[in-house]
TrEMBL record:
GO cellular component, one term: cytosol
PANTHER family referenced in this protein's UniProt entry, alphabetically: DEHYDRODOLICHYL DIPHOSPHATE SYNTHASE 2, DEHYDRODOLICHYL DIPHOSPHATE SYNTHASE FAMILY MEMBER
InterPro entries xrefs: UPP_synth-like, UPP_synth-like_CS, UPP_synth-like_sf
Co-factor: note: Binds 2 magnesium ions per subunit.
Cofactor: Mg(2+)
Protein name: Isoprenyl transferase
Description of how the protein assembles with itself and partners: Homodimer.
Similarity section: Belongs to the UPP synthase family.
Organism (species): Chitinophaga jiangningensis
């Protein structure tokens, strides 16, 4: 029996975020070059995107390349960028066919011109789709994003477009890359590391965190179902007491 049958389809997270980690170790364990791991990781991306679309998940954010990853050896960075261009080119039609809307968060200006262009074209091409929103975090880091938001807020205040006294959480969020997207309820990190590595620091404030030893190239639909099942056992209290949450659920049902 698939774990899928055990899922409560009424209580799926609207937004899942994943730190796709472990490609390098996966390859090394097989006596291969790190880039082989990144290539194999694309198969997991395909599988997980398809699974989320099938389940009716609204948003999936995938951490594909961090600001800090630019400091990796040049050959690896170049290999990842090339893989990115080829994958988008190959997959854009499938995204459209599956009604998936592509989006990106991060500093696109840092990407090689061709990668940036492919990305922008794919975003435009899929912009009218109404199914899953797939958000790729590319050249992304949360500190970059938050500092950038602060800069834009300061600039708007200086121009007189924004009154600093009106800056609330709602206003601040409009300046983040994720403006318009709900916060992730479930954050998954593969490959054993229990850290956030500069990912969505603002948006993950109340996310349920799920860490698994499975390396990203081995992570497939059943692993995702397992993560969601685990999520569904958690009580999300948002600072309240368990009794308050249960009372509220009784009122709703
Ligand atoms: C994640 O896998 C992919 C990127 C960060 C681009 P890693 O390349 O970090 O794999 P490990 O952590 O070294 O095994
Ligand atoms: C986080 O993985 C970034 C991505 C998965 C894209 P890293 O492998 O770069 O994180 P650290 O360096 O182990 O914290
Ligand atoms: Mg890693």
């Amino acid at each position: 029996m698939s774990l899928k049958d055990k899922l409560d389809l009424q209580r799926l997270p609207k937004h899942i975020a994943i730190i796709m980690d472990g490609n390098g170790r996966w390859a090394k364990e097989r006596g291969q070059d790190r880039l082989y791991g990144h290539h194999e990781g694309v198969e997991s991306v395909r599988n997980i995107v398809e699974t989320c679309a099938e389940l009716g998940i609204g948003y999936l954010t995938l951490y594909a390349f961090s600001t800090e990853n630019w400091d990796r050896p040049v050959y690896e960075v170049n290999g990842i960028m090339e893989l990115l261009v080829n994958t988008i080119r190959k997959e854009v039609n499938t995204l459209s066919k599956n009604n998936i809307r592509l989006n990106v968060i991060g500093d696109l200006d840092m990407l090689p011109a061709q990668a940036k262009q492919e990305m922008e074209e794919a975003i435009a091409l899929t912009s009218h789709n109404t199914g899953l929103t797939l958000i790729m975090a590319l050249s992304y880091s949360a500190r970059w994003e938050i500092v950038n938001a602060a800069k834009k807020i300061a600039a708007d205040a200086q121009k007189g477009i924004l009154d600093p006294a009106t800056v609330s959480a709602d206003v601040f969020e409009k300046y983040l890359c994720t403006a318009g997207f709900p916060d992730p309820e479930l954050m998954i990190r593969t490959s054993g590391e229990c850290r956030i590595s500069n990912f969505l620091l603002y948006q993950l404030a109340y996310a349920e965190l799920y860490f698994t030893d499975t390396r990203w190239p081995d992570f497939r639909n059943e692993n995702l179902y397992e993560a969601i099942l685990n999520y569904q056992t958690r009580e999300r209290r948002f600072g309240k007491t368990s009794e308050q949450i249960q009372q509220n659920e009784e009122i709703i049902s």
